[in-house]
Prior knowledge:
By secondary structure, the protein is an alpha/beta fold. It is 38% helix and 15% strand. The N and C termini lie far apart (40 Å).
Amino acid sequence: xxxxxxxxxxxxxxxxxxxxxxxxxxxxxxxxxxxxxxxxxxxxxxxxxxxxxxxxxxxxxxxxxxxxxxxxxxxxxxxxxxxxxxxxxxxxxxxxxxxxxxxxxxxxxxxxxxxxxxxxxxxxxxxxxxxxxxxxxxxxxxxxxxxxxxxxxxxxxxxxxxxxxxxxxxxxxxxxxxxxxxxxxxxxxxxxxxxxxxxxxxxxxxxxxxxxxxxxxxxxxxxxxxxxxxxxxxxxxxxxxxxxxxxxx
Length: 249
C-alpha cells in the first residue's frame, strides 16, 4: 500500500530542490527498478521519527528516499559534507534540508545537533547506524556507531527499523559503474518500533548506548532475515578487526 504524500512536514517546507529531486528520480526508479515495500504501517503518519536502515551501497539514499516518500514522509538524511560541494547535487541536498556530516573535524557535532533538532521539530530523520556500507561478507549489518542510539535516547521519539535489499546489485561496494539492466528489485521491510523505553530512564552511559545500538541493529537484522529468507550469523561482523589487521578500510 502506498500512502498519499503530504504537502509539508515540520518547520521545513518543500522547495524547488526537493520537488526537482522527486520529479526526476522517482520516474527513473520506476523505470529502472521493481519496488517491494512491506510494513509501511509502522512508519508514523506525523511527528518526529528516526528511521534506522542497513547500509548496502552508496546508492542506498536514492532508493531509501523513494521508499520514505511513498510512506508519506519527507526524508532528511545525514550526508557526508563533501557531497554538498558537488554541483547540482549539493544544491539538491541543501534545498531539500539534508544534514551535512563533517567527520573528523571541529564541526562534527553539528550534524548530531541538527538531527536532534529536526526530530524534535517533527521531522523524519533517516540514519544508517553503521556509518558506511557494510563490510560483512554476507552483507548483514555490522557493528555500528552509537550516534543513532544517542539521538534516539535524547529525543525520546520512535525508532523504526528498516531493512533493505537490492541496492548492492545496482552498485556493489567498490564498483564505479552501476548495473541498471536487467531491472533490479529494491525491497524494503519495516518493523515495529525498537523497544528503548527502559533505557530512556537511565543515565546515558557508554553501556546504555551500546545496549541501545545493539537493539537497533538486532531489529534491523531481524527484518532483513525475513526479507532475505535467511538467518544472519550469530556473531556480528566487527570492521575494527580489518583495521587492526591492515585489511580493507
